[in-house]
Amino acid sequence: MTDPSRRGRWVAIVTGAISIAIAVAYLALITVPTLLIAGENDPNASPDVMRKMGERILGSRLHVMPGIGHLMNLEAPDDFDQLLIEFLRDNPAHVRH
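^ thats the sequence. predicted structure below, dont judge the formating
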């Protein structure tokens, strides 16, 4: 591989893959109640990706917001806030006052 631009792209791909693998391994270490929220139409963190994350976090909950993209807190702020409020009410021991 003598072309520096190809080598740079290859290094970026490998570095990214390693970073993702490390991050995924850390998901299993999460021991607090966790709410995962996905937008049905999110191209960055799709419901399938979030579901796979949730499988690695013991006791996590996933909520998929229908018709919403990546910026769910801006696209549907009232629904998003309600999800968070309900989650925090269900898990009061983990809320800092």
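The CA atoms of residues 22 and 50 lie 16 Å apart.
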